[in-house]
Amino acid sequence: MEEHSAAVSLHGNPLTLMGPVLNVGDTVPDVEVLDNDLNAVKISAFKGKICVISAVPSLDTPTCDVETRRFNETAGQLGDDVVILTVSTDLPFAQKRWCGAAGVDKVVTLSDHRDTVFGSAFGVLIKELRLLARSIFVVDRNGVIQYIQHVKELSEEPDYDAVIEAVKRLS
């Protein structure tokens, strides 16, 4: 698997990402991840909707917690034509527990813990940590990536306004 340095760091320490570098205009990789009940879910299952895919290191960290709660609030304002997915390497049981405790009911959490196929296909698998780098992909109804945001410092939040603008351009 190819390595690339996307200038991602954790507390200033550089990290290596595994997988290809995806670009706007690429077809979204159709990988299979697990939902909170251990069911296999392909990314293509969301085709036909505008899809915000938020890759995060772990829901049990402060920044990921804030980000996922914020997207859960935002999801209610974007309408039924938009789905927000949060993907991490957390176990599905941990994701389900976290969602219940946090009251997150609009964001779909998916687990890449088994084979890290999502992280590898999207180029966001952190070699040193076996976690996903904080990244956002906005995908149109046809499965084409229309916006990408890689957060350079994993402990920082994404630019939410830029993500919402990208979604609104597709609505």
Structure keywords:
alpha+beta, Glutaredoxin, five-stranded mixed β-sheet
Spell out the helices and strands N to C: EEEEEHEHEHEEEEH
Number of strands: 11
Strand order of the largest sheet: 7-6-5-10-11
Structural class, from secondary structure content? alpha+beta
The radius of gyration is 14 Å
Distance between the termini: 36 Å
> Poorly predicted ranges (pLDDT <50, ≥5 residues)?
none
Query: How many helix segments?
Result: 4
CATH topology: Glutaredoxin
In the CATH hierarchy, what is the superfamily? Glutaredoxin
Based on the coordinates given, report the CATH architecture.
Answer: 3-Layer(aba) Sandwich
Strand proportion, as a percent range, falls in: 25-35%
Helix content: 25-40%
Tell me the number of structural domains: 1
Biggest sheet statistics: 5 strands, mixed
Overview of the structural elements:
The protein has 171 residues and is of the alpha+beta class. Helix content is 26%, strand content 30%. Strands 7-6-5-10-11 form a five-stranded mixed β-sheet. A four-stranded antiparallel β-sheet has the order 1-2-8-9.
Ordered list of secondary-structure elements with their pairings:
Blueprint lengths: L2 E8 L2 E6 L13 E3 L5 E3 L7 E6 L6 H17 L3 E7 L3 H11 L5 E4 L5 H6 L2 E2 L4 E2 L2 E5 L5 E6 L9 H11 L1
Parallel strand pairs: 5-6, 6-7
Antiparallel strand pairs: 1-2, 2-8, 3-4, 5-10, 8-9, 10-11
Q: What is this structure, in a nutshell?
A:
26% of the residues lie in helices and 30% in strands. The chain has four helices and eleven strands, in the order βββββαβαβαββββα.
